[in-house]
Amino acid sequence: MQQRGLQMPALLRLDNLLEAQMALLNDTFAKAIQNLGYQSEYHGVFPIKVNQQCAVIEEIARVGARYGHGLEAGSKAELLIALAYLDPDSGYIVCNGYKDEEFVDLALQALRLGFKCFFVLETRPSCRSSSRRAAVWACVRCWACGSSFASKVEGHWNESSGDRSIFGLTTRRSSS
């Protein structure tokens, strides 16, 4: 690249890399499901917050369609991206993160249009407010629950693991 006189930093795009990795991931799950006699399916989701580049989301949506691979949206902007790139009959949209009334209403409208949206509800207030909005839209098939485990992990995230976890419900909150 330097010999060609290209300036750094440079963005390299490797054709078919995402496609190959998604095929490997989904084929591996399919083999494990078959080998273990698991009675359900695998439907992966890519968290948009990891990489919001248009080319990446577009490729994940295109390749993922053959596997039922969806997108995870943690904000209204990410939900709009997911709705723009997924077809209603393709992968799931997992609505994670803070859900204000507009976010919930947008996802519920998407459900009515045939998108497969699921809400991850981690707190009681978010359960109550989302349930109220779902009642307004006459929607009932869209809930998922999150929980955290008391187990401690090693490494970078160990301070936010266990009972002090910032991800999902703590063991005390989920059992009450």
Quick tags:
5-stranded parallel beta sheet, alpha/beta, 5 strands, single chain
Question: Any overview of this molecule?
Answer:
25% of the residues are buried. The chain is α/β, with parallel strands linked by helices. Strands 1-2-3-4-5 form a five-stranded parallel beta sheet. The longest helix has 20 residues, at 17-36. It has six helices and five strands, in the order αβαβαβαβαβα.
In terms of topology, how is this protein built?
Elements: H1 17-36, E1 45-47, H2 54-64, E2 70-73, H3 76-85, E3 92-95, H4 101-112, E4 116-121, H5 124-136, E5 143-145, H6 171-175
Parallel strand pairs: 1-2, 2-3, 3-4, 4-5
Helix pairs in contact: 1-2, 4-5
Nearest-angstrom radius of gyration?
19 Å
Percent in helix: 40-55%
Stretches where pLDDT is under 50 for at least 5 consecutive residues are 167-176
Extended strand count: 5
Which term fits the overall shape? globular
Count of helical regions: 6
Category by helix and strand content: alpha/beta
Query: Main β-sheet: number of strands, strand sense, barrel status?
Result: 5 strands, parallel
Q: What sequence of helices (H) and strands (E) makes up the elements?
A: HEHEHEHEHEH
The portion of residues forming beta strands comes to 5-15%
| pLDDT averaged over residues | 80
Question: How far apart are the first and last residues' alpha carbons, in Å?
Answer: 59 Å
Spatial order of strands in the largest sheet: 1-2-3-4-5
